[in-house]
Amino acid sequence: xxxxxxxxxxxxxxxxxxxxxxxxxxxxxxxxxxxxxxxxxxxxxxxxxxxxxxxxxxxxxxxxxxxxxxxxxxxxxxxxxxxxxxxxxxxxxxxxxxxxxxxxxxxxxxxxxxxxxxxxxxxxxxxxxxxxxxxxxxxxxxxxxxxxxxxxxxxxxxxxxxxxxxxxxxxxxxxxxxxxxxxxxxxxxxxxxxxxxxxxxxxxxxxxxxxxxxxxxxxxxxxxxxxxxxxxxxxxxxxxxxxxxxxxxxxxxxxxxxxxxxxxxxxxxxxxxxxxxxxxxxxxxxxxxxxxxxxxxxxxxxxxxxxxxxxxxxxxxxxxxxxxxxxxxxxxxxxxxxxxxxxxx
Length: 345
Description:
The chain is of the alpha/beta class. The chain contains 9 helices and 12 strands.
């Protein structure tokens, strides 16, 4: 009798908690399958003119995803994993704010205040990462920075051992209140373009102070580049530091800062890096070439322009790495031997 009662109680217990569990799944499943866009698609963004635009994110598997913007509408089915990618046709530049709408299975996400113009990636180390707030005449520059058609997206300076899909950042509209955190080199570049072209300009800052070039390469590129034994040797020394010098470890910054925004459509890249590799000037020529080729593959643009800045420091009176600096500057002159006409220094 007692065993029979226990069995009945156990059955009631299982039935009750199974019902609670199924109710939890019913409530949670819409959240797990919710339509979602990466943060690079957020309010205040700039889309690249005259090029097809890739828009991607997550939705319920097999969902019919529709992207609408500036009078056009494009659709695609999400994959079994929920990933989707929709391509908008190329558009002319426009300074009129529009709404980018993404919808799937009765869910809708709106990205507001979107302009169309020129978008540039800002890559490198501290030379690029230094903000407008750190320049000599910072107060005057910030006071004059009333350029609402210039927007910037600063990727947090972090590293990771595995490729990441998300990054915690958002677009900012250039103003006296916001420009202080914008990359200084990028801002002056964008301001010149905006004044000359009269177009909206978007900047995506993927730089990290103190970084080596290998940290911005994916693992495959590091594996195939020349003199990679030297890169792997330095990886160990940087990881052994306390705390680890992640911006010196191959692929770490690529994984956390670049991979999450691929393949966002951009015009080109401005590159200001080299100090972290001053001790390997000859190898740097090959590493830089392979980095450029990798970026063009990843961002689906075999002709992506690259503008690289030469370090302006005068190391002629310094001991130690001075000779390496002079060699690197001389060897940089060899870049035109392999660069196409759309790459400039």
